[in-house]
Design brief:
Helicase, Ruva Protein, domain 3, 5-stranded antiparallel beta sheet, alpha+beta, N-terminal domain of MutM-like DNA repair proteins
């Protein structure tokens, strides 16, 4: 947590505030959020201060800010953001003045969200100061996330790298992250072949960011419930058609979560405006231990799985 829908909600909410803006200063409150930054704060400042944000892109759970110089020319580096377990990007400051978006960039509407407005200064680790008095705070209670700069490299397949990306470039540190289910360039047939070649439990493979990215514990359980597949079924024993159906189920769940602003159980995940998503109302399996399955009425059970909890219906999702 956050997973793909939550990171995409953050990307969409952030875009109108930062695209076309120039970074004027960087405050680092806690250096632990820079542990992946080569050269530390000095290197971060050297790259970021004076840089213009030309695009915001996302692949799986990775979000990156494309950077240009004062003439608008790309500098070949990006600011990578990973929210970890509890990371937030919170916007403060001036009212939004829509910048001129780079050609080909799409700034979509912000999904509706609701909920509390937590204090944006609590657990603040890093602040990016932008022109027009806008500030973006990186807030992270559990300190698993972080910000760092990374060189841009081309994708292996030569296709557009991610949602919001203008071309085939992506950060070097994200080159091992597979495409996600919302990526139009994802080869689902290839993913099915990879899954069928493995004897590992299907849920562990859904969570493997090098096979398919963006899926975490919540959307894995929800996708498995929709497809009526057990989390511990060996992938090699599942038919190609059922695996294709499973991928489609996970995709549909994440599309619905995206429209609902993501899934929030507490203040650890909120949008850039401090509001939480409400897809938790639509969950069928995850966190529903002891409640009736919406499909058959059997009580949902919770079982331990690889240091996590998995939720399933013992009737719908039984061994075949």
């Amino acid at each position: 947590m956050p997973e793909l829908p939550e990171v995409e909600v953050v990307r969409r909410g952030l875009a109108p505030h930062v695209l076309g803006r120039t970074v004027t200063d960087v405050d680092v409150v806690d250096h632990r959020s820079l542990r992946r930054q080569s050269g530390g704060i000095d290197r971060l400042r050297a790259v970021m201060v004076g840089a213009r944000i030309s695009a915001l892109a996302r692949r799986g759970k990775f979000l990156w800010w494309r950077l240009a110089d004062d003439r608008g020319e790309e500098i070949g580096e990006a600011l990578v953001t990973h929210l970890g377990m509890s990371g937030q990007l919170r916007v403060r400051g001036a009212e939004v003045i829509p910048p001129e978006a780079p050609q080909g960039d799409f700034v979509p509407s912000i999904p509706t969200s609701e909920g509390p407005h937590p204090d944006p200064l609590r657990h603040r680790r890093i602040t990016l100061h932008l022109d027009v008095s806008t500030r973006v705070d990186f807030v992270d209670q559990r300190l698993f996330g972080g910000l760092w700069t990374s060189d841009l490299v081309p994708t292996v397949d030569g296709l557009t790298s991610a949602w919001g990306s203008p071309d085939e470039l992506l950060p070097h540190d994200a080159r091992g992250i597979a495409r996600d289910l919302l990526d139009e360039h994802l080869d689902r047939a290839s993913v099915v072949r990879i899954l069928r070649s493995r004897r590992a439990p299907i849920k562990s493979l859904l969570l493997h960011q090098g096979i398919i990215s963006g899926i975490g514990n919540i959307y894995a359980d929800e996708g498995l419930w929709r497809a009526a597949v057990r989390y511990d079924a060996p992938a090699a024993r599942i038919s190609a058609q059922r695996l294709a159906d499973l991928l489609e189920s996970c995709s549909l769940v994440m599309h619905e979560a995206l429209q609902a602003g993501g899934t929030s159980f507490d203040a650890l995940y909120v949008n850039v405006d401090g509001r939480s998503g409400y897809f938790a109302r639509s969950l069928n399996a995850y966190g529903k231990e002891g409640e009736p399955c919406p499909r058959c009425g059997t009580l949902i059970i919770r079982e331990p799985f690889q240091n996590r909890s998995s939720f399933r219906c013992p009737r719908c999702q039984r061994h075949r």
